[in-house]
Amino acid sequence: MIWTELDTWIVLTGALTAMACAVPGVFLLLNKQSMLGDAISHAVLPGLAIGFLVSGSRDPLPMFIGAVLAGLFTGVVSGVIERRGRVEAGASLGVVFCSLFALGLILIRLAADHVDLDPGCVLYGALELAVIDSATVPRIVWQSGAILILNLFLAGVFFKELQVVAFDPRFAKASGIPSGLIQQGLTVVTALTTVVAFESVGSILVIAMLIVPGASAMLLSRSVSGVLLWSLVVAISSAVLGHVLAISVGPTWLGLLTGRHDLGSLSSAGMMAASAGGIFFSLLAASRLAPRVRSSSQRRAV
Q1: Burial zone of 111 (CB within 10 Å; 0-12 exposed, 13-18 middle, 19+ buried)
Q2: Domain covering 5-301, topology
Q3: 163 burial level (CB within 10 Å; 0-12, 13-18, 19+)
Q4: DSSP class of residue 14?
Q5: What is the DSSP string of 129-167?
Q6: DSSP letter assigned to residue 265
Q7: Which residues of the chain have pLDDT under 70?
């Protein structure tokens, strides 16, 4: 395995993106709204495409505005469907994000005919290409770092409110905490983070970045601050492990399975998401095994 400067930027971008996604993802999990992250990552596609079609370029401002509006639209409309349609939250989100995702795919196709836009990159990302930049530090690194700092800052400022709204909405309402505004703010932050992640990991793989680090961290800690910290550790670990697997172990194993030894590197973003899943299942297995080991040790001691 030959490690280059490009590999360093790929890992750094992947780690920053994964950490930026993990911060709002933790609070989505605590609010039992992990499906909302899935919905937003799909539903912002039409907002992204409309931004491209209106501006005629890849100017980030229309993209951000369109994505945020689409994210808010998802949250509001799914809430209306849940209340008026008398269906559970998951079903209402499913109706909204499936419809918007289908519309987004159509609009992305239209946008690709008028703008230099690859639908595959929007869906699956192009981490290896995103870091190729003439600047000393690639633009995507600055963007990913900026959204991570913003998310950490907002999580620190509204930490108490986010905890109260997640664990005791009634107490939050009685205490005068604007739970609705907090929820909308979380939706906006998730939409912004998803848009920044589009260029590197795409709209589909960002789901893993949003949910899996937090889910893994919940197996390691019971406090909110501990879950946040461990989710960042898992995000960094999955980025490093995923890229190493993508450029070394993955192609070797795939070559042995297929009989083709001329395969190039695998998708780093895809392997990062797969590594995050592998870390989760490893921690899950360890958490199930540890009580049995302790119980067996106690029986031997007796």
Answers
A1: buried
A2: ABC transporter involved in vitamin B12 uptake, BtuC (1.10.3470)
A3: middle
A4: H
A5: HHT--SSSS-HHHHHHHHHHHHHHHHHHHTHHHHHHHHH
A6: P
A7: 1, 56-60, 85, 87-90, 110-125, 134, 199, 203-204, 250-264, 290-302
CA separation for the pair 84, 214 (Å, rounded) = 32
pLDDT digits (tens, 9 = 90+) for 98-146: 787 788 777 777 665 555 555 555 555 677 777 777 677 888 888 889 9
| Residue 266 C-beta-side C-alpha neighbours within 13 Å | 22
Tell which residue, 218, 245, 279, has the closest CA to residue 34. 218
Select from 236, 21, 8, 12 the least CA-distant residue to 147.
21
Q: Tokens in use for 79?
A: 């809430």
* Calpha distance 146→140 (Å, rounded): 10
C-alpha–C-alpha distance, residues 109 and 57, integer Å: 15
Query: Distance from CA of residue 20 to its chain's centroid?
Result: 8
- Judge whether 67 and 44 are in contact, CB under 8 Å: yes
Looking at residue 235, its pLDDT comes to 94
Owner of token pair 């889910």: 215
Query: Of all helices (H) and strands (E), which one includes residue 200?
Result: helix 179-217
Using an 8 Å Cβ cutoff, are 275 and 241 in contact?
yes
The interaxial angle of helices 159-167 and 5-30, nearest 10 deg, is 50
Helix, strand or coil for residue 264? coil
Q: Where in the chain are the domains? A: 5-301
Give the amino acid at 248.
S
Residue with token string 């795939």: 254
Residue 151 and residue 143 in contact, taking contact as beta carbons nearer than 8 Å: no
Q: Please tell me the number of Cα atoms within 13 Å of 237 on its side-chain side.
A: 16
Which amino acid is present at 262? Answer: D
Helix or strand or coil: residue 26? Answer: helix
